[in-house]
Write a structure and sequence with these properties.
Oligomer: heterodimer
Number of strands of chain B: 7
Helix content of chain A: over 70%
CATH class of the largest domain in chain B: Mainly Alpha
Order of helices and strands of chain A: HHHHHHHH
Strand content of chain A: under 5%
CATH architecture of the largest domain in chain B: Orthogonal Bundle
Number of helices of chain A: 8
Structural class of chain A: mainly alpha
Strand order of the largest sheet of chain B: 2-1-5-3-4
Largest sheet of chain B: 5 strands, mixed
Largest sheet of chain A: none
Number of domains of chain A: 1
């Protein structure tokens, strides 16, 4: 859970920073997209590095979901008779929504890939023009809304996930517990703010077709 | 004080339980929660009914025998308090109080509010001990222990094994109990020889007993009558990683 989540977190940071290239204009953004495919050439064939990263990510996603399903099944088996009354004492909203939040995020990732990778769900869907496709998608209010809701879900997932991963890997102790929690919250907020800046820049006209 | 109690009644291990409602008219705010149940039981016995079975022993908050889920919270509304040390002044006249046993597959109900916590014994038997010969108390200066380690070990050692962590955990995990023992023994020189086999064996026994997995939600430490910190689970994870990924486990 912690290791595969960590791999995906590192990917998300790179993804978010890459997205910010959109503020440098269509040429820079499309060139960055092309660079991702040609990086390492001519030493390695076209798309080698990108494909390797995709394999690592897919493996992480599969193992992460497998571990989550195992934990959920163990939890259900561990309490066959439910409490008649139950009160939460200190658990956070983020920690409580990890499982269903994860399902929502998985569905969003499928939509996101159909939208901007396979271009089937994108209003423009022009291969080789990620800038135009992103602008075309985010100009529609309900696409931006769907991305916003999903990204907030990702933020909550990361808030508990980062803390929990660091605790699982034994990186927390009584002196660091507070710092680890604050780091998890700040990292989640910064990452999601970075991601949201793109659709909001499009819908407010800050980034448009030039 | 007049109280309405809704108590889980279950005849035996295989019995199908249900919540039964009782009313008590004359509860003193100075009574402990268990004394309040004693009053109810005396009345039930006098009227020829079966009294409510519940576990208790020292009634001083140090033995770990008592424990029930009161209004959805293990050991009731007061922090760092066992059920026997909870007093009726924390409730108000006219309250309805729900009382249930610990609910865990690893802690089967024996009767009413009494659960079988042998699963904790199996975890201790797997490694919650040291194999150094015992006898007279060792000379204190022979094996120096750093003060912060001694303090943390002592804090973990205050665990009374009541099982509230399991009862409160949304995953039904017994990780805080297991972690308290690992931390207590792992920080002291006497616990070093078995440090890395202990953590692997105790986790195996924990999973074997049917407890759920830990997802670091933190409900356990919030209800723990001894305030065992979540840090102990981090300590357990560090030792577990050293033992497995770090290759320190002898087998």
């Amino acid at each position: 859970m912690a290791v595969t989540g960590g791999v995906m977190f590192v990917f998300l940071v790179a993804h978010m920073v890459g997205n910010l290239k959109i503020f440098a204009g269509p040429e820079a953004f499309n060139h960055y997209s092309e660079w991702l495919r040609t990086v390492g050439s001519p030493a390695v064939p076209y798309r080698t590095v990108l494909t390797l990263l995709e394999v690592v990510l897919l493996l992480s996603v599969v193992l992460h979901i497998t571990a989550a399903v195992q934990l959920a099944r163990r939890a259900r088996a561990a309490r066959p008779v439910k409490y008649r009354s139950r009160k939460r004492v200190q658990q956070s909203y983020a920690s409580r929504t990890m499982r269903w939040g994860g399902v929502i995020i998985a569905l969003f990732v499928i939509y996101h890939l159909l939208d901007l990778t396979f271009l089937v769900a994108n209003p423009a869907g022009v291969p080789g023009d990620p800038y135009g496709n992103a602008v075309a998608g985010f100009s529609t209010w309900y696409v931006t809304l769907a991305y916003t809701v999903a990204l907030i879900a990702v933020g909550f997932h990361l808030r508990h996930g980062l803390w929990s991963a660091l605790q699982t890997l034994g990186r927390s102790d009584d002196r660091r517990e507070r710092a680890v929690n604050v780091t998890a919250s700040v990292a989640a907020v910064l990452l999601i703010a970075g991601f949201l800046s793109v659709p909001f820049a499009v819908i407010t006209g800050l980034v448009g077709l030039r | 004080m007049k109280l309405t109690l809704r108590i889980w009644r279950q005849k035996g291990r295989d019995g199908k339980g249900r919540m039964v409602t009782y009313t008590l008219d004359d509860v003193s705010p100075d009574m402990s929660f268990l004394e309040m149940l004693d009053v109810l039981n005396e009345r039930l016995i006098l009227s020829g009914e079966e009294p409510v079975a519940f576990d208790h022993d020292c009634r001083e908050g140090i033995c770990g025998m008592c424990g029930m889920v009161i209004n959805g919270v293990a050991h009731g509304p007061e922090r760092a308090t066992t059920t026997c040390q909870l007093h009726m002044r924390h409730f108000s006249d006219g309250d309805t109080i729900d009382i249930e046993p610990w609910r865990s597959a690893a802690f089967p109900v024996i009767k009413d509010l009494v659960v079988d916590r042998s699963a904790f014994d199996s975890i201790i038997q797997a490694g919650g001990f040291i194999t150094a010969p015992t006898g007279a108390a060792p000379e204190a200066h022979a094996t120096p222990v750093p003060k912060p380690d001694a303090d943390a070990a002592f804090e973990a050692a205050t665990c009374i094994g009541c099982g509230a962590c399991v009862a409160a955990c949304p995953n039904g995990s017994g990780m805080l109990f297991t972690a308290a023992k690992i931390t207590h023994l792992g920080l002291l020189p006497q616990g070093q020889p078995e440090r890395y086999s202990r953590v692997v064996d105790m986790i195996d026994a924990h999973d074997e007993a049917g407890f759920g997995g830990c997802t670091n939600i933190g409900e356990c430490t919030a209800v723990c009558p001894k305030g065992i910190p979540l840090e102990t689970i981090s300590h357990l994870n560090r030792d577990y990683l050293s033992a497995t990924a770090g290759g320190k486990h002898p087998e």
